[in-house]
Amino acid sequence: MAEKMPQIVCIGRQYGSGGREVGERLAKLLNIPCYDKVLVTETAIQSGLSEAYIKNEDETPGQSRWFLSGNPFADNAALTDAFYSGSQVTYDTQRDIIHQLAQRGPCVFVGRCAAAILNRSDVVSVFIYADEEDCIARVMQRNNLTAQEAAKRIKHINRMRKKYHAFYADSDWGQPDSYDLMLSTSKLGIDGCVELIRDALNLPKEGASHE
């Protein structure tokens, strides 16, 4: 019997590479949900932390600085923080949400160590990267920054993502042996990456039995 086609795509990405856009376009093409920003909102609701905190800190492990959202049940988060940092509360909540969403069916996750969290045979993990100049140009346009400011921001966020991944996942961020696919938007374009991921989902894994 042929192995079941993977149903969940987890996308890691360099900052400024266009990885989020790849995930969104892939989900639209396959007519399945893309979970990225919704994770921020759901995590804020369930943890009592503010969305601003989640956006700024959920890829920065070990930070203890945090604030509450005005949620009337946020005192629970305050009590929890006596034992865990805000980042740990964020991670624990997002981990549970990711498992819940994955149970609903095929989907795309962007970031948040989703592949390592799920650790399932029906997951394809993808890393999206790009040439430095392309990342800088994209961040400059998106955030109205100078080239120097964009380069500094890219370096900082990629460093934080690497630390976050090392802290929570048993694999190395951005390294080939940590992913099923590594694709460059500089070489392939956003749509080219989307097409290659779609094609990969229809291929049996090497060594799969065809009996």
State the total count of DSSP E strands: 5
Mean pLDDT: 82
CATH class categorisation of the largest domain? Alpha Beta
**What percent of residues are in strands?**
5-15%
**What level of helicity do the residues show?**
40-55%
Distance between the termini: 5 Å
Instruction: Indicate how many domains the architecture comprises.
Output: 2
User: Which stretches of 5+ consecutive residues score pLDDT under 50?
Assistant: 63-83, 203-211
General form: globular
- The CATH superfamily of the largest domain is known as P-loop containing nucleotide triphosphate hydrolases
Secondary structural class: alpha/beta
Order of helices and strands: EHEHHHHEHEHHEH
The CATH architecture term of the largest domain is: 3-Layer(aba) Sandwich
Q: Biggest sheet: strands side by side, in what order?
A: 2-3-1-4-5
Description:
The protein is of the alpha/beta class. It folds into 2 domains: 1-32 and 107-198, 3-Layer(aba) Sandwich (Rossmann fold), CATH 3.40.50; 34-103, no CATH class. The chain has 9 helices and 5 strands. The protein has helices at residues 19-30, 37-47, 51-57, 75-80, 86-102, 114-118, 132-143, 147-168, 185-201, and strands spanning 8-13, 34-35, 107-110, 123-129, 181-184. It has a 5-stranded parallel β-sheet, sandwiched between helices. α7 (132-143) packs across α8. The longest helix has 22 residues, at 147-168. The chain is globular.
Summarize this structure as a short list of keywords or feature phrases.
211 residues, alpha/beta, Rossmann fold, 2 domains, 5-stranded parallel beta sheet, 9 helices, 5 strands, 52% helix
